[in-house]
Amino acid sequence: MGFIIALLSGILMSIQGVFNTQVMKQTSMWVAAGFVQLTAFLVCITAWLFTGKKGISGLMNVSPRYMLLGGVIGAFITYTVIKSIEIMGPAKAAMVIVISQIVAAYFIELIGAFGVQKAEFDVKKFVWATITAVGIFMFSK
What we know:
5 helices
C-alpha cells in the first residue's frame, strides 16, 4: 500500500508542478505559490473538520520546535518546483527533483538526522542511486 501511495504522490507532484507553473506564467511566482499554500490550507481545514478534529493545541508541544517549519519549507518547495519546471520542463525537472530527494533522504537516514532512525551504509543503495543519477544526466543530454 505504501508503494501505491508513493506512486500516487509522484504523479500528483508532477501534475501540480505543471499546474503551478502555468498559474505563475499568468500571475506571478509568489501569487502562484501563495495560492497553492492557501488552497492546501483550506483542504487541510476541511479534512480536519471531517476526521475527528483532534485539537491543534498539540502543536505547542512539538519538540524540537524547528519541526514546525514544514510549511515554510513547503513554500520554498512550491517555488523551486515551479522555477525548475519553467526552466527545464516537467520531465527533466521531475527527474532532478527525484534524484535529489533520494540522495537527501538516504543521507538523512545515514546520519539519523531529524529523529529518523539511523541506517547503516548499504553499497547496493549507493550504487542504485548513482545509476539513477547517471541515467537522469544521460536523459537530460
